[in-house]
User: What shape does this take?
Amino acid sequence: MGDNHHHLVCRRCGLIEDVDCATGVAPCLEPVGRTGFAVEEAGITWWGLCVRCRPEAPQ
Assistant: This one.
């Protein structure tokens, strides 16, 4: 926690992998419009199929 990373999540097996932030700073810390929230953290999650679950993966 606190190391500024995001996540990849496999929709089939549920594998979760950490991915370093490419920009060096957390994204979207200022939401558009007035929300009333004091934003403390933002993150990105990519969803798809891991290398083991992709149909073209070697068996």
